[in-house]
Specification:
With 191 residues, this protein is of the alpha/beta class.
């Protein structure tokens, strides 16, 4: 009779050990198998620009450097005259910044224009605080870094260290752009 409780005790001990050690063994096997266990969904609406490119390194002396030192930059690029789609894009960038609420001071809006200077009266009246710059080298860099599978005319997000982080399509809902920016600002300890 004393042999039966002893076998029962060992069996219980093995079951308890399996409950605690079993998941570790399964996790180690999954990790070592090298399978792609990344989630298939994504939470960002914009396009991550990987690998990150440092504007400071790629375009030294660019006037954008003075604007990203203490803040994130939401940059709109338009190489031609600022027509109705350009004005709509500037309005969208302004509204997206306002939608950030208390975080909006962490974002600087920049309009990178081409050789045609923008209408300064319109910008002063409709877009106070918008920074306008002309920089052909930066324009070439951004045009080359925009993913080929997304349309031009969108917005670039630059972190306070001068890295290109994201690109937002021109037809993206501003609320989705704001979701991505809020997520990055929440995770960021800079700017």
């Amino acid at each position: 009779m004393s042999d039966a409780p002893r076998k029962s005790g060992r069996l219980q001990l093995l079951l308890i050990a399996a409950v605690f050690i079993g998941p570790l063994i399964v996790a180690a096997w999954l990790y070592s198998s090298g399978g792609d266990l990344q989630p298939t969904g994504r939470s960002n609406h914009g396009t991550l620009l990987e690998p990150f490119v440092s504007i400071t390194d790629e375009v030294p002396g660019s006037p954008i450097a003075a604007h990203h030192e203490d803040a994130w930059v939401l940059l709109y690029l338009n190489g031609s005259a600022c027509d109705d789609p350009c004005r709509d894009a500037l309005y969208t960038s302004r509204q997206a910044r306002l939608m950030l609420g208390k975080e909006m001071d962490r974002i600087t809006r920049v309009f990178l224009h081409g050789d045609t200077p923008p209408d300064t009266l319109f910008l002063a009246a409709e877009h106070p605080g918008l920074v306008t710059i002309e920089d052909g080298s930066l324009e070439s860099l951004l045009t080359g870094k925009r993913p080929a599978d997304v349309p031009a005319g969108g917005y670039f997000l630059i972190d306070p260290l001068g890295n290109l982080v994201m690109y937002f399509r021109p037809d993206l809902d501003p609320a989705e752009m704001v979701d991505d920016i809020k997520h990055l600002l929440r995770l960021s300890r800079i700017g």
